Amino acid sequence: xxxxxxxxxxxxxxxxxxxxxxxxxxxxxxxxxxxxxxxxxxxxxxxxxxxxxxxxxxxxxxxxxxxxxxxxxxxxxxxxxxxxxxxxxxxxxxxxxxxxxxxxxxxxxxxxxxxxxxxxxxxxxxxxxxxxxxxxxxxxxxxxxxxxxxxxxxxxxxxxxxxxxx
Length: 166
Fold this sequence. Notes:
By secondary structure, the chain is mainly beta. 14% of the residues lie in helices and 37% in strands. The strands form two sheets. Strands 2, 4, 6, 7, 9, 10 and 12 form a seven-stranded parallel sheet that branches. The protein has a five-stranded parallel sheet with strand order 1-3-5-8-11, with no helix packed on it. The termini are far apart.
């Protein structure tokens, strides 16, 4: 009887722990930036207060949502347009500062290329959601073959909000 009671208590405790972990982790998955290569976000991902060195493309897929808050995203390039950012139809990208105030810049998100003599592509497709606030976006917009012009941020969507951003 005592062995059966102990087995029941241990089994119940283990089941409770599993259920607690499932409930605590009930939010969406998180796709952390890779050490190297492409970063593909197909879930809900929030990154805050850090520097990301990206040695590939950043793609937010149709099922993805990426929020960067007080983040320095450095896109490493060997040539113009080698890598960049694309938000696919249905995806969502938010680039924002930490306190949502124009008067402070120390907590702004910054997206730039490395080296800063080269440019990356930044394309936001139709049917996406884009919000950039109180942040700095530098050297984006390379499209086409070598020697073509830098077009800046290319936005096809009607759901874009860019405020207080350089």
